[in-house]
Amino acid sequence: MSKLIPFFKKFALAALVLAIGLAALPTASASAAGLQDETTPPTKRPVDGVVPVPARDNELLEQIWARVQSTYQQQGDRLAKADEFITRAQSLIEKANQKGWDTSAVQAALNAFSAVIPAAQTAHNPGAAILASHNGFDADGKVINRPAAVMTVKALGQVLKDTHAAMNGTGMALREAVKAFFEAHRPAQAPATP
């Protein structure tokens, strides 16, 4: 009897390993279609010449339209305030000059920034006509003609890109110049008293 127990233990262990190994194998087979199968997958059938589009796609297009309109408005607000910003910045530069500080880098960046504002405004202006016509969208921003709506979104997006390109990075350059100026002229901190 003592010889049978180790045999049954080994047998049970082997059966367990075999069961686990077989469980890892797939139980169903799959096969691909042969090279001779030339059936085409089903497509969306046009209804009256228009391919139906899921409502979810139109909702996404409406969200993109709202976002592009908002971005256009923000860009327009910044361009409208550019003259006021330039005047204030020039005033601060003059005050810094009176203190004897070197403002040449900030002045050069401000001059470059103010030089591109007219071109940026010119690039921005066509967007007003696109917003006014809102082709493909109704007054509430809902899609009524998907192909026209897609073209409208692309056109307004191109206006945003053109305006950004017209700025030619001068806004960021001005920001960096002002940041460097303030870093160089930061008031010294008084030592902390214990």
Write a compact overview of the structure shown.
This protein is mainly alpha-helical. The protein is built from 7 helices and no strands. α2 packs across α4 and α3 packs antiparallel against α4.
Descriptive account of the structure:
By secondary structure, this protein is mostly helical. The chain is built from seven helices and no strands. It starts with a helix and ends in a 10-residue tail after the last helix. It is flat, with a radius of gyration of 34 Å. It has a domain at 55-184. The mean pLDDT is 83. The protein has helices at 4-24, 55-80, 82-98, 104-124, 126-133, 146-167, 170-184.
Main structural class: mainly alpha
Binned, the helix content reads: 55-70%
Summarize the main sheet.
none
Spatial shape: flat
Strand percent estimate: under 5%
Query: What is the string of helix and strand elements?
Result: HHHHHHH
Low-pLDDT stretches are: none
How far is the N terminus from the C terminus? 87 Å
Keywords:
flat, mainly alpha, 194 residues, 7 helices
What layout of secondary structure does this protein have?
Layout: H1 4-24, H2 55-80, H3 82-98, H4 104-124, H5 126-133, H6 146-167, H7 170-184
Helix pairs in contact: 2-4, 2-6, 3-4, 4-6, 4-7, 5-6
